Each structure stands twice: as C-alpha cells, then as structure tokens.
Amino acid sequence: MKIICIGRNYADHIAELHNEVPSAPVIFMKPETALLQRGQPFFIPEFSQDIHHEIELVLRVSKNGRHIDESFANNYFDAIGLGIDFTARDLQAELKKKGLPWELAKAFDGSAPISPTFKPVAEFADLANINFHLEVNGETRQTGNSSLMLHPFAKIISFVSKYISLKMGDMIFTGTPAGVGPVKMGDQLEGFLEGEKLLELGIR
C-alpha cells in the first residue's frame, strides 16, 4: 500500500503558512514505514526541534483504478478515518528555501498516525459536510470541515489517478485546516470525526 498526501487544500491553512494558493492539488507521498497504528506513541525524531501536528481526513481506497473520471471517483473509496501528517517544520523550511523536495520533513518513520477505526462512507449523509477536529491535552487546536476543501474528494481521486494508479488499501490524506502547531514530549493528541473520538496517541 502507499500513502498519498494532499498539501495546501484549505485556504486558511495556506494563509497561516504564507503559501501561494495552488491551481491543482499539491501531492506528496509517505512510505508505509510512516504509518503509526493502534494508538502507538509518536517519538519526536532527533533531527527536528519543531514537529507540527496536521490533522486530516483520510480516505481508504477500496478498488484499483487509473484515469478515473471525477463523476465516478467517489466509488473508489469505501471508508473515511483520521490521520495526522506530522511535519518537521524547521527541516521543511530549510528544504523549501533550497528548492528541494519535502520528503525528509514529511515522510520519516512514524509521521503518519491513522485512526484504528474508519467509518463506512454510507454513514455520512453528505461527503461535502464532514466535521473533524484535533485536541491537544484537552484543548481544541484544529477544526475542519470537508466543505472548506479547495479540492474535494472526487477531484483528488481523479487527479491523482491520472499520474499514479490507485490500489486497494491505499490511504489518501486530504489536507489539513488551519491551527497547525508544535507538539512536545508528554502531549496527548485526540482526533474526533463528527464528534466521535477515533484517534488517540501520546508524544514521547
């Protein structure tokens, strides 16, 4: 399986990082070794002094496909969960300054915790109105809704599949809302999807 991530997909997050609004989805990848599952703790890597949390809705790809038409794209995922795109912000800034890829800041081991539970698509009344949020030590840090995405699920699926074949079991991180910020040792993170806690992990 592979982890496909969409960057700069919420206008307020783009603004807080002073980035340009992209005309097409911004794509980067994480390897399978980035996955953290079943509530395993996240260990702050020694190469960064500024790890940021980025809560995201995650799509679980349910069948193989390539060159998928946008009108059929929602048939290619069967469940939605939560994930955190941990980012070494200091390293990312250094790489961006040099015009280099982001992978070292985004794709390191353990940088992609996902919820142990994914909710079936059929349980959502409207895929364009899904609420989610992240709490750090009981305080809400990020709040998002799928209606605020610059590129909705179907467009993401269609766009990605023009370049990269999708396979059953792939995960697609769909972007993070505003409110990203640093984590520190001892923090406890909890992710909620439509008010239900799906994701919980500690920072070590």
Short note summarizing the structure:
Keywords: Hydrolase, Metal-binding. It contains 4 helices and 15 strands. It has helices at 11-16, 89-97, 103-106, 153-163; strands spanning 3-7, 26-30, 35-36, 51-53, 55-61, 77-84, 87-88, 112-113, 119-120, 131-136, 139-145, 171-173, 181-182, 188-193, 196-202.
User: Helicity range of the residues?
Assistant: 10-25%
Pattern of helices and strands:
EHEEEEEEHHEEEEHEEEE
Tell me the total number of β-strands.
15
Unreliable stretches covering 5 or more consecutive residues: none
Note the gap between the termini: 27 Å
Strand order of the largest sheet: 2-1-12-5-6-9
Task: Classify the beta-strand content into a percent band.
Answer: 25-35%
* Structural Rg: 16 Å
What's the helix count?
4
Mass-distribution shape: globular
The main β sheet shows up as: 6 strands, mixed
Query: What structural category arises from helix and sheet content?
Result: alpha+beta
Q: Residue-averaged pLDDT, rounded?
A: 96
List its salient traits:
single chain; 204 residues; alpha+beta; 6-stranded mixed beta sheet; 4-stranded antiparallel beta sheet; 4 helices; 15 strands
Mind explaining what this structure looks like?
With 204 residues, the chain is α+β, with helices and mostly antiparallel strands. It has helices at 11-16, 89-97, 103-106, 153-163; strands spanning 3-7, 26-30, 35-36, 51-53, 55-61, 77-84, 87-88, 112-113, 119-120, 131-136, 139-145, 171-173, 181-182, 188-193, 196-202. The strands form four sheets. A six-stranded mixed sheet has the order 2-1-12-5-6-9, with helices on one face. Strands 11-10-14-15 form a four-stranded antiparallel sheet, with no helix packed on it. A three-stranded antiparallel sheet has the order 7-4-13. The two termini are 27 Å apart. The mean pLDDT is 96.
